[in-house]
Amino acid sequence: MPLLEVSRLTIALPTARGMVQAVHDLDLTLARGQTLGIIGESGCGKSLTALALMGLLPDGARASGSVRFAGQELIGLDDAALQRLRGNRLAMVFQEPMTTLNPVHSIGRQVAEPLRLHQGLSARQARAQAVALLERVGIAGAGARLDAYPHQFSGGQRQRICIAMALACGPELLIADEPTTALDVTLQRQILQLLAGLVAEQGMALVLISHDLGVIAEHVQHTLVMYGGTVVEAGPTQAVFARLAHPYTQGLLAARPRLGGAHARLPTIAGSVPELAQLPPGCPFAGRCPHTEDACHAALPRAVELGGGHTARCIRLRDTP
Amino acid sequence: MNAINSIAASAYPISAEGQNHSDSALLQVRRLSHHYSLPRTRLLGPRPRLAVLHGVDFDLQAGRSLGVVGESGSGKSTLARLVMALDTPSAGSVRLLGRDLHRLPAAELRAARRDFQMVFQDPYASLDPRQRVGRIVAEPLQTLGATRQQQHERAAQALAEVGLRAGDAHKYPHEFSGGQRQRIAIARALVSRPRLIVADEPVSALDVSVQAQVLNLLQDLQQQHGMSLLLISHDLAVVSHLCDEVLVLYQGRVVERGTPGQLFSRPQHPYTQTLVQAVPRLL
After folding, report:
1. What gap in Å lies between CA B94 and CA B102, rounded to an integer?
2. Which of A292, B5, B37, B260 could form a disulfide linkage to B47, CB 3.0–4.6 angstroms apart?
3. Within its chain, how far is the Cα of B220 from the centroid?
């Protein structure tokens, strides 16, 4: 049984123009110890997907379909049951460490909190455990800095503290939503290596969300490419980047400036990301895609099987057995 | 009135001072140093100083582009603020078209600002939400004594150059996407026909596909108008794409400089090597 099995997840959000579909029929499976990346631009639904997995959707949002975590259905689960899972078997790391950490509590207290809450450790035990966790994520001299406050740490250290909090109870699934976007490239590499090390060591599953193709290509085994709330391409990372089956994936990759690729004009994707309320009825990328035909506007293309678990939604593709 | 007349007279006017220095660099930065004073640690003690720039030297020729890379805290945004004369350096000088910007009287500095304009990182924070786009874009012309009519015309022209419609001048910033807002910020920087644009992380808040559009726009505008570009970024690929020359700033010092080709294929300084190695590569 896979650790996480999401099928036909659809999320509707309330807007001034009524409910709009922000995520449409998303499927994914993830086994223990595996890593999955979700790439896409603002508004593609990647962060909402992460929030739905954590049961943290904003007020008024409606999720339908199924999210099964270790066999348990999360959609429709009551708050108390979700709270027993969150921070315990399911954990999340957010983009901005300074808004995740509470500025008026010491870091020792914050890292110890899930341990006291979920594992019923005493204050002293939790504190000892917090030191070990902070040392594991690379906070030097953690024992002496337990009573320091978040503002006394640098951006990279704060993100490490957030990771220590997320790891406190040894979660089976860690969701990291743009964990390094606020950090420098050198720190980005350290944090991603830390996450990779933890996955290998603890057999945890990781969902890594990023807009950075390089981050995804280097750090996860499976990749989902999202556009306009729909998964347009999915598969093993190597296969996705080798084939670039969907025109959106191709456009995204080509638009990226490269080291040493001096002064040539960057190929751009025509137009701009459509608003969710104004998504075209067929393929969400129709109109911006250089290969748009009439049939693209008719219906959302099905996921075409390209071999080895690699799929893409485009009418120009044919099944490869 | 003189200023605006000369703007109207030529597509990209060269001010009188500029012509005298046509063979020297457009921008000359010499031994630029800066420190910030921190809050006192003891009631009557001295205020500790944090040195952020140490003796930075560089020249930027007319029509060329220079990139500055470095991590948070390396002093790159301080450098941009000093070049823009938004802060006064602790030591050293910034000369644009031969004039020392930090020694100009306030009125002359205000007039001189038409020659150098800035594009900021966050297009959600750099545009006043309560002003219409036409007025935001025309603002640099106000201190130059342009008439209403001239302001309208120039704003419409600048909006057209960045790919927006003339009708957009009547809208408010919230009606635009992030990429369009950054175009508005670029139109505002262009409206006075500057010789130098300083862009501090101009695309780091934008999505990949929008980032490519804005980078192409900066490149086109620079080539069309022969402007110089000082580009501050933590993203080596962006700098490599747009710039003729790159400075690597580390703890307030220039540790390496060269063309993007040299610097990123054969980095010499250990810090540059770390930076280049840290860039994620595709498979």
Report:
1. 7
2. B37
3. 16
d(CA A105, CA A15): 35
**Is the CB of residue B254 less than 8 Å from the CB of residue B242?**
no
Degrees (nearest 5) of the Cα angle A87, A90, A94? 75
Q: CB of B112 within 8 A of CB of B99?
A: yes
- Determine the Cα–Cα distance for residues A312 and A154; give it in Å rounded to an integer: 41
Element (H, E) at A25: strand A18-30
Question: What's the predicted TM-score (pTM) here?
Answer: 0.84
| Inter-residue contact A133 to A168 (CB < 8 Å) | yes
- Which chain A positions have a beta carbon within 8 Å of B264's beta carbon? 259-260
Over residues B154-183, the pLDDT tens digits come to 999 999 989 888 889 999 999 888 888 999
- Chains A–B, number of C-beta pairs less than 8 Å apart: 114
Place of tokens 């770390």: B274
Nearest C-alpha neighbor of A217 from the set A30, A37, A93, A34: A37
Residues B238-279 have pLDDT tens digits of 999 999 999 999 999 999 999 998 888 899 999 999 988 888
Residue found by looking up tokens 């959302």 in the block: A300
The enclosing H or E element of B198 equals: strand B196-200
Are residues A214 and B276, on separate chains, in Cβ contact within 8 Å?
A: no
Burial grade of B46 (CB within 10 A; 0-12, 13-18, 19 or more): exposed
Residue B232 DSSP SS3: strand
* Helix/strand/coil for B194: coil
Instruction: Classify strands A4-15 and A62-69 as parallel, antiparallel or unpaired.
Output: antiparallel
